From TrEMBL:
InterPro entries: Exostosin, Exostosin_GT47
Membrane topology type: Single-pass type II membrane protein
Organism: Erythranthe guttata (Yellow monkey flower)
GO molecular function, one term: galactosyltransferase activity
Localization in the cell: Golgi apparatus membrane
Pfam families the record matches: Exostosin_GT47
Location (main, coarse): Golgi
Source lineage: Eukaryota, Viridiplantae, Streptophyta, Embryophyta, Tracheophyta
Protein name: Exostosin GT47 domain-containing protein
Entry's Gene Ontology cellular component terms: Golgi membrane
Family the UniProt entry places it in: Belongs to the glycosyltransferase 47 family.
Keywords: Glycosyltransferase, Golgi apparatus, Signal-anchor, Transferase, Transmembrane
Source organism, top-level taxon: Eukaryota
């Protein structure tokens, strides 16, 4: 739940002239008593000293002296994790404020970010309504702990004790909450919009539309309503109108195609096609490769280390893991003819000594019920097969790499044309590509993998493990440059580079 915090009332400090006049009046009154042997002398000297200290401390009083700030949009309050306050913070009136000077004073060469304090209907109320976000089940566990979900207690059966506390049952569609929390505590956040290079819109777009995506007979108007309301609100903000949205960005916690409906009766919302959304940059778990304003960021996994040492412990663990299986596949068929996943499963079942399968048919892999089995399979395998999911991408890519397993791709749009800032620039250094057409025509996956030497497998695994920090979302604002930091650096650099260039209106 996002607490709504009202800004402190504006008040004007007393001017130095008034204080000086008071001091003069005190001098006149005290003149008959200015003897150091007189008790009243010591009393009034103490009062004078106290007023002098108050005068000297006035510049640091907790209110603004600038009248310009009154008419500026209100910044979103600085909030920490709603259930646990991270180390290095102090709490004032329920608000978690960073007190680490290294974070607050670190230079931001590409500028700072202003976080809008939006009406609660766009974020806080959506979380409060977590029981009704999905037509089949409650989403309250998924949105808890700022999108990390509940702690993964059972994971301790397969991972070391020194990292088990970093694991959560994280939902793949929780990106909006995770980014909002990190933005509120971001080292390059500013509370002054006039000094911002970028503006963040904390609207939980994916959570807001989820119910209507899966509710039978939901209308296009219902799927578009909250996005339209958000754009109406943002359209009234002076800094949005100043730039026409070119320096604004938003997190959409689902794939791009869920927001690209072009006509009534088709799937999804038409949010991305609405006029005011045109110039707003979108961070999504899967982008439209041909849309400049879409930026793909990694799916959330269940691993959220709170320190660099915890991250290093995990990397050491997966690097030293003995892998007994050559390749694996976690998934299920889609139930139609020529289903590519069915072909993969058939190849796996025909090589029982080399391939391991985790059956995810039905709801067997939902809500963390098979997380241990999936993670243990990835930890035990040199390679993991990664076909496209319901769209071109799938969260399993990142679960696989997190376990130090080498991904095998069959479509270039599954990773190579999606997550350029987060994965190595040379695909062959960390992955294997086998065209899905070749597999359909009878190419044996095992025979392809058999051609890769043990030395190369070792180098590829080392590269995968090296990139683990870049594909996770840490439970910390310091010590780890994670997927959030990489995304923000790339975003701010883009805004800086496009500043002054040609922009359509």
């Amino acid at each position: 739940m996002l607490p709504v915090v009202e800004p402190p009332p504006f008040s004007k400090p007393k001017t130095p002239e008034i204080i000086i006049d008071r001091k003069h009046s005190y001098f006149t009154f005290l003149k008959p008593y200015l003897s150091f042997h007189h008790r009243r002398t010591w009393f009034f000297l103490s009062v004078l000293l106290l007023q002098l200290l108050l005068l000297l401390s006035a510049p640091s009083l907790p209110f603004s002296l600038s009248a310009d700030n009154i008419s500026s949009p209100q910044p979103s309050p600085i909030i920490g994790n709603p259930t646990t306050i991270k180390q290095g913070t102090t709490t004032v009136d329920g608000i978690s404020i960073s007190k680490n000077p290294a974070i607050n004073q670190k230079k931001c060469p590409n500028g700072k970010v202003y976080v809008y304090n939006m009406p609660p209907q766009f974020n806080a109320e959506i979380v409060r309504n977590c029981r009704n976000l999905n037509p089949w089940s409650s989403r309250c566990d998924a949105v808890s702990n700022w999108g990390f979900g509940k702690p993964a207690d059972r994971i301790s059966a397969i991972v070391p004790q020194n990292v088990s506390g970093a694991w959560y049952w994280t939902d793949q569609f929780s990106l909006e909450l995770i980014y909002h929390n990190r933005m509120l505590n971001y080292r390059c956040r500013t509370l002054e919009p006039e000094s911002a290079a970028a503006f963040y819109i904390p609207f939980y777009t994916g959570l807001a539309v989820e119910k209507f995506l899966f509710t039978k007979n939901a209308t296009g108007e219902e799927r578009d309503r909250q996005c339209k309301a958000m754009l109406d609100w943002i359209g009234e903000q002076p800094y949005f109108n100043k730039s026409k949205g070119w320096d604004h960005f938003i997190t959409l916690g689902r794939i791009s195609w869920d927001f690209r409906r072009t006509k009534e009766g088709d799937w999804g919302s038409s949010c991305i096609h609405m006029p005011r959304m045109r110039n707003i940059t979108r961070l999504l778990i899967e982008k439209n490769h041909w849309d400049y304003f879409d930026i793909a960021v990694p799916y959330p996994t269940g691993f959220h280390p709170s320190s660099a040492s915890e991250l290093k412990n995990w990397q050491n663990f997966v690097a030293g893991r003995t892998r007994r299986t050559q390749f694996c596949f976690a998934g299920a068929t889609r139930g139609f003819n020529n289903d590519f996943r069915g072909i993969l499963l058939n190849q796996c079942h025909s090589e029982p000594g080399s391939c391991r399968v985790v059956d995810c048919s039905g709801s067997k892999c939902e809500n963390g019920t098979s997380t241990n089995a999936i993670m243990e399979t990835f930890l035990d395998s040199d390679f993991c097969l990664q076909p496209r999911g319901d769209s071109y991408t799938r969260r399993s890519i990142f679960d696989c790499m997190l376990a130090g397993s080498i991904p095998v791709f069959f479509w270039k749009r599954t990773a190579y044309l999606q997550y350029e800032s987060f994965l190595p620039s040379e695909p062959e250094s960390y992955s294997v590509f086998i065209d899905q057409k070749d597999v359909k025509n009878g190419t044996s996956i095992k025979r392809v993998l058999d051609t890769i030497s043990k030395e190369k497998v070792k180098r590829m695994r080392e590269k995968v493990i090296e990139y683990i920090p870049k594909i996770i979302y840490a439970n910390s604002t310091q010590g780890i440059d994670d997927a959030f930091d990489i995304a923000m650096d790339a975003l701010l650099r883009r805004f800086k580079e496009q500043d002054g260039g040609y922009k359509w209106k």
